Amino acid sequence: MHGPASSGWLLVALCAVTGVYCLLRMRSSAEEQRSSAGGEALMGFGMAAMAVPAAVFTPPSWTWPAYATVFGAAALRALWAARSGAHHLHHLVGAGAMVYMSVAMAGAPAHLHGEGRSGIPLLTGALLLYFAAYVLLTGVRLVPVAAVPGNGGGGGPAGWGDRPELARACRLSMGISMVAMLLTL
Questions:
Q1: CB of 48 within 8 A of CB of 19?
Q2: CA 75-81-86 angle, 5° bins
Q3: Which residues pair with 103 in a beta bridge?
Q4: pTM more than 0.70
Q5: 173/183 Cα distance (integer angstroms)
Q6: Which regions of 115-170 does DSSP assign to beta strands (E)?
Q7: In whole angstroms, what is the distance from residue 102 CA to residue 133 CA?
Q8: Contact 179, 128 (CB under 8 A)
Q9: Which of 14, 40, 96, 152 makes an SS bond possible with 22, Cβ 3.0 to 4.6 Å?
Q10: Quick one: pLDDT at residue 153?
Q11: What per-residue confidence (pLDDT) applies to 7?
Q12: Helix (H/G/I), strand (E/B), else coil: 185
């Protein structure tokens, strides 16, 4: 996950901005926006932290098990929440992918990070296929929504947290970021 510095910093910035927007969505008046925003903020900030270029900061060895623990807990929460909606299954796969990447990075020597020599190729490939399909599907769903003016349902202009097209754009950016991170695993 620690590839070239310039692309690593772009990934950090994209994931951090996405995490910030998801925190803003947690204040939305629409329950559907708030329901998954916390998990998405955690994913955004976690992905940003994992994408910091190794040339700038090499995390201590305890970092990877800590990531695995945090995202393992997020996966359990997503599994529990999946009883009410299919989107939580995506959160389960995302949190599971973060656990997998954390475990793979913990087992890889520091000089191999970002060189594609860690992880299980079959599992990495399956996750890549899933997230590539998710990115394509989310991109297709985003196209018609972007043409509709935002409306929070109350007749007035929608707040930042109530814009479904922005939420989809954030999910799309996190999906693209996950593909990029898995490619360097």
A1: yes
A2: 95
A3: none
A4: yes
A5: 15
A6: none
A7: 23
A8: yes
A9: 40
A10: 46
A11: 84
A12: coil
Cα of 104 vs its chain's centroid, Å? 17
The token duo for 54 is: 């190794």
State the number of CA atoms in the 13 A half-sphere of 111 facing the CB.
0
Give residue 67's identity as a one-letter amino acid code.
Answer: Y
Q: Say how far apart CA 122 and CA 111 lie, in whole Å.
A: 23
What's the CA gap between 18 and 24, in Å, rounded?
Answer: 10
- Give the number of domains in the chain: 1
Q: What is the pLDDT of residues 17-41, one digit of tens each?
A: 999 999 988 887 777 677 778 889 9
Structure tokens at 180: 């990029």
Question: How many angstroms separate the CA atoms of 158 and 60, rounded?
Answer: 43
Helix axes 164-183, 31-50, angle to 10 degrees: 30
Sign of CA dihedral 93, 174, 127, 99: negative
Spell out the residues 6+ positions from residue 49 whose beta carbon is closer than 8 angstroms to its own: 67
**Mean of the pLDDT values across residues 85-98?**
87
Q: How confident is the model at residue 107 (pLDDT cuts 50, 70, 90)?
A: confident
For residue 27, the enclosing domain spans 5-183
